[in-house]
Amino acid sequence: DSGVTQTPKHLITATGQRVTLRCSPRSGDLSVYWYQQSLDQGLQFLIQYYNGEERAKGNILERFSAQQFPDLHSELNLSSLELGDSALYFCASSIGTGDRYGYTFGSGTRLTVV
Amino acid sequence: SQQGEEDPQALSIQEGENATMNCSYKTSINNLQWYRQNSGRGLVHLILIRSNEREKHSGRLRVTLDTSKKSSSLLITASRAADTASYFCATARTGFQKLVFGTGTRLLVSP
User: Fold this and answer.
1) Does B92 contact A99 at a Cβ distance shorter than 8 Å?
2) Which residues of A touch B87 (CB under 8 A)?
């Protein structure tokens, strides 16, 4: 157990639907990062939050949004889902805002869009 | 886009042998990190080497960094079947907060 909790572990949904992925960071970590991993695109950075504020944005589609709540857990919302959104979605956390520390990853949410 | 490229893409060795993986990147960095991912699971942080360091050890792992060549290598000595996994380098680009991951090396260690 890495200390980063992601739910659900698996999600199967239909095209056009909306889902919410949840992440609880490791205790004491203020930064949360979301990554998407697919076979053809590798591990792609989506977005980072630090203590409730958005700090960095990557290749995140407009159909996707995220937020970090006062208790530091984060949610990634994916809407108008397409087949190509099928992937592993990882949340990671770190102590600070930057990249000076290693990330702790959750076990991921496997999203399948049918 | 990927910042790092690992080489080789796949590596197959016998238990007890050493495994060497290489990573090349494109821009100036603050540090470079290596992660391991067992099939379909989360990534595990292995080691971090700062841009002013040239070599770092952790157990059976040895990492080198050559900033002039923009490259790094990860050496796993006396490999075990349990080392079978994908290994990723990740770079922390100067002035940016996020880690960018490479494409990974799939390591298979046979008993």
Assistant:
1) yes
2) none
